[in-house]
Amino acid sequence: MYQLQCAGTLIWTFLWSLVVGIGYEVDLNRAGVPLLEIVSEPNMRTGVEAPEYAAEVQRMVQYLGVSNGNMQQGSLRCDVNVSIRPVGQLEFGTKILFELMAKGGTVKGLIEEKDLVQIVDPAEIEKIVDKVLLENPKQLEQYHGGKTKLQGYFVGQVMKVSKGRANPGLLNKIVMEKLNATG
Q1: How many other β-carbons are positioned within 10 Å of the β-carbon of residue 131?
Q2: What average pLDDT is seen over the chain?
Q3: Is the whole-model pTM more than 0.70?
Q4: Is 74 helix (H, G, I), strand (E, B) or coil?
Q5: Where's the Asn/Gln amidotransferase domain (predicted)?
Q6: CA-based, 20 to 30 A from 28: which of 57, 92, 121, 123?
Q7: Are residues 130 and 157 in contact, defined by beta-carbon separation less than 8 angstroms?
Q8: Which of 128, 135, 138, 126 is nearest to 181 (CA)?
Q9: What pLDDT, in 10s, does the model give residues 55-71?
């Protein structure tokens, strides 16, 4: 956390660019206003955590009386880098911060628009697990023959089908239950 001064905002003007070429305006409305930047751990695991975190920061600055926390007026700004990575993948996926800044809107809205919402409904995960088990009878037979490490294979297949959106904890539990029930 550190404090800095707002120097102004550079705004690209579309109308001006049509007439003269690329055009920018400078908004000095908040120039000289002290800014407080909070940099959090870059490790939020669900699409729910980011908007909840932003809302909590907003409530905190309002409660402390240091800001009205109004994002539309620019009193509070949340720059978020959302990156999706499947379970087991170490490197981050494509970041969508610039898209959020360009389009505006909310973190939650962009997560929903990009269909990045984590699947936490057990029934929905069960349907995918059932489908994967039906499509992989050979591996299922091998699992019941003693190759228990194939559990990871089934989890991976479900993550592939769900595009990495299945809740990992819930998924592992359901896969284990289904594998033990089919044996």
Answers
A1: 13
A2: 77
A3: no
A4: coil
A5: 49-179
A6: 57
A7: no
A8: 126
A9: 888 888 889 888 887 77
Residue 133's pLDDT is what?
94
CA diameter of the chain: 73
| pLDDT score recorded for residue 1 | 45
Ramachandran sector of residue 9 (left: φ over 0; alpha: ψ -120 to 50; beta: rest): beta
* Domains with residue ranges and CATH for the chain: 2-113 (no CATH), 122-182 (1.10.10.410)
| Closest alpha carbon to 57 in 28, 27, 77 | 77
> What's the rounded Cα separation, in Å, for the pair 53 and 153?
34
* Residues 91 and 85 sit within 8 Å (Cβ to Cβ): yes
Residue at 57: amino acid letter: V
